[in-house]
Amino acid sequence: MTDLRSHVIEHELPDLHPSLLSFLHSRLHGVPPQHGLDDSEPETMPGPAGDAPGMHVLVISPPSTFAHTVAQVLRAIDPACRITQAAHPSTISSADLSNASLALIDVDETADDAHALVHQLSCRISAPIVALSAAVDQASIDCVLRAGAVGYLPKTYAESLIEAVLRLVRGGERYRPHSDQPESRKRGRPPKASQASDAPLDVLGGLT
Q1: What is the CA radius of gyration of the chain?
Q2: Which of 85, 87, 96, 178 is the most buried (most CB within 10 A)?
Q3: Which distant-in-sequence residues (6+ apart) come within 8 Å of 94 by Cβ?
């Protein structure tokens, strides 16, 4: 199975960025899970004692399985990561908003309009925003990207894909699922063209 997936990555998805190809190859051999969030709000989880300060990530979502998975992925990316979780941006302190290096917002878990919620958050922080949602239709994706999000992370993604997307955004890239359309506002390098594929990893076709 590992050899088959390696073949798919190398031959079916040749346009992926070299660093992402290397990352996906390493994931084929497995990465031990890290610690995630506990169920409380708002709560800040500091990185391990003695480590250099890591990134500060806002996870704006009520306690959920997906939020817990995202926290595990963030710990895998940066063991010293400090995570602040809250159900709504209004409950996050100004200090946490100003010190954030990344914000993940679950647009499904609020009564607010997704566009307005993302726009309000983008006006309050300078950090990149990634929307989390179960919706994968183009209208929903367009809505939050136009509002100021730089990435859109479907809840159907496995941990390896979540990690790949968050690493891209952390590196200054934008991410839009299932799309080869260039974004109107760039962050980092422009995306490369990709071809649609029926391979198991075809969801990666939109990655830069």
Answers
A1: 17
A2: 85
A3: none
Higher pLDDT, 113 or 9: 113
b/e burial code for range 98-110 (CB count within 10 A of at least 16 → b): eebbbbbbbbbbb
Structure tokens at 60: 């704006």
Among candidates 157, 163, 132, which has minimal Cα distance to 31? 163
What tokens were used for 8?
A: 């798919």
Do the beta carbons of residue 115 and residue 136 sit within 8 Å?
Answer: no
Cα(first)–Cα(last) distance of the chain, in Å?
25
Q: State the pairing for strand pair 43-45/82-86.
A: antiparallel
Q: How far is CA 58 from CA 72, 102, 104, in A?
A: 14, 6, 6
pTM assigned to the model: 0.64
